[in-house]
Amino acid sequence: MSQYLCVVIVTFGLLLAFITYAMRWIKIELCLPFAILVLGFLSFSATSLFIHVLIWGPFEYALGGWAPPIGIAYNVDQLNSFMVFIVTLVALVNMMANWKGLNTFLGDRIGGFCALYILYVSGLNGILLTGDLFNLYVLLEIASLTGYALLAIGDKRFAPFASINYVFLGTIGACFYLLGVGYLYVKTGSLNMLDVSRLIKELHNSPTILSAFMFIIIGVWTKMGLFPFHTWLPRAYTHTFGAISSLIAPMGTKVMAYVMFRVILTVFGINFVFRTSAFPYILTTFAVAAILFGSIFALRQTHLKRMLCFVVITEIGYLVSGLAIGNSSALKGSILHMLNDVFMTFCLFLSSQAIIDKMGAKIEGFSQLFVKTPFIAAIFLAGALSVIGIPPTCGFFGKWFLLLGAIEKGSYALFCAIVLSSLLNLILFFRIIEVAFYGGRAIPTWRITGEFPWSFYGGLTFAGLSILVMGLSTFYLIRFVIEPFLMPLGL
Amino acid sequence: MPDAIAYILAKYNYWMAVILMMIGLYAMIAKKNLIKKIVGMNIFQTAIILFYISIGFKKSGTIPILEHNGHVIDVAKYSNPLPHVLMLTAIVVSVSTFGVALALAIKIYQEHGTLEENEILSELEQ
User: Fold this and answer.
1) How far is CA A480 from the centre of its chain?
2) Which of A98, A111, A168, A413 is buried deepest, with most CB atoms within 10 A?
3) CB distance A159 to A245 below 8 Å
4) Cβ(A251)–Cβ(A342) under 8 Å?
5) Phi, psi of A192 (to 5 degrees)
6) A76 with A49: CB under 8 angstroms?
């Protein structure tokens, strides 16, 4: 029974999004509670699906009863069911935390917003669960199109213009992906991921497969916001409304990173990447560039949210570096980092939204932050420590495995880049902490709450705790989620 | 030289798709007007649709409908329907991308009173 959940999560999500919009014809106030109900249902289904996979192991679901190479299949395994679990959970918490803010900011546009929000989450769930290359493209476009629309909400002067730039780059990325899938289809005649991976084993030397790989990887990198293709990211995320950036920043790029892992590891296989010496070099160069430039650009920013965007770009570099190293520990590290990064980014963006609300966006203006809003500042600090990589926050463990892998493989360029960027992140966040602790003077009020609704503090508590919980459960994550994904691939 | 011409002509569908793609990409990169950029984006997507359709096509192939009155099914007679069906979805995607982009362009025009990218940028920098 619970194997149907993988389809329920995607199709019901897409369907219920429109019913959420239709709620505005009954009563406009119903939209938001109904949307939260829908997200709660998705989150509950995702939890059941994850538990089902943990107990019974991975399975394949053939849509409409058509057997996989011909029909579309959903391949559910430990990694993607866990990703669906955290994506739906974070989406739910984010919606609940921003309940009041959304209601006052959006007014009667709330119905459309809720529909877009659920469509976006369902699109992401579909990307994660599907085992079909073309199906992935369609769901990717569902998530992207709703993402463009969501990112255009916010600062009227900047947000639509930033969003249209994202439309152009995002479309180029998605089209490159589609073209690469076309090349694979020409050569193998199949679109099912497992079938394609079986068929291209003998075709590794074909230039068509090579071009397909390049097109797909460049397309996915554009959507991920890897360093030279990142230009859309800071603009789009900075000027949008807070609740939207704390939805899209944690998920959009990480789900695309999942696509990168899925396509490279499952479809092409890691041996394809390491068959020639050129690819590891290219990957290493991109990863090092992303890590270093992300950190350096972040140092230059004075706008808090824009700075966090560059932190996201640095994190994307970490995710690619695991592939560039390509051994078991590094891949474990980067997949672990991908999972942790959802929570780290969520924590930073959610708390920064409150900080910006209260103190403005400029970092110089954060004097006495810890006295004025101790709780929000503490949550922000937890996210910051995690990005720097201080145990027991979750950011430490991903980096640890990455560094371990880099030493085993002897790729010292990446080793140095990761260590250096951790130090740069330390400077980055201590710049804020210095202003927040020692800048200016304020009379301590010792009021922990107030100003923001309780649900927002609940969301912040969740974000702070999740960082610790993810950090402390690293062993279980690796044992039950990541190793079952890597083991069948021979890693 | 005749070899090269024969080579190009043999795969003219791919060349056309590539040329169209480059036109679209050029418009997206080089044009300053947002509407021109959006049209370039649409040309870019159409090029890929054309590529898919051409790979499913067969010379003198018929529509892929099974006949049950004693005919032996000869695959060589039919065009491959799968890429064509996939492109139905891709056309929907490209239309909706076009719609979203135009809606954003309307918002930008309402806010800035222009669709020229450099004018908007110089206004934003102030």
Assistant:
1) 21
2) A98
3) no
4) yes
5) -75, 130
6) yes
Which chain B positions have a beta carbon within 8 Å of A185's beta carbon?
A: 55, 83
CATH architecture of B2-125: Orthogonal Bundle (1.10)
The answer to whether B97 contacts A141, with C-beta atoms less than 8 Å apart, is yes
A178 part of contact set with chain B, CB < 8 Å: yes
**Regions of chain A with pLDDT less than 50:** 448
A146 CB contacts (<8 Å, ≥6 apart)? A116, A117, A119, A120, A123
Evaluate whether A290 touches A313 at the Cβ level (below 8 Å): yes
Say if CB A384 and CB A344 are below 8 A apart: no
- Do A414 and A287 contact (CB within 8 A), yes or no? yes
Instruction: Decide if A163 touches B, using CB distance below 8 A.
Output: yes
Which among A134, A167, A182 is the nearest to B100, CB-wise? A167
Tens digit of each residue's pLDDT (9 = 90 or more) over A28-53: 888 888 999 999 999 999 999 999 99
Q: Are A384 and A469 in contact (CB under 8 A)?
A: no
CA-nearest of A18, A196, A33 to A116 is: A18
Q: With b meaning 16 or more CB within 10 Å and e meaning fewer, what string describes A373-394?
A: bebbbebbbbbbbbbbbeeebb
The whole-angstrom separation of Cα A479 and Cα A466 is 19
pTM metric for this prediction: 0.93
Answer left, alpha or beta for residue A451, where phi above 0 means left and psi between -120 and 50 means alpha: left
Q: What is the mean pLDDT for each group of 10 consecutive residues in chain B (126 residues)?
A: 81 89 92 92 93 85 71 73 89 93 92 87 84
Among candidates B34, B90, B107 on the partner chain, residue whose Cβ is nearest the Cβ of A152: B107
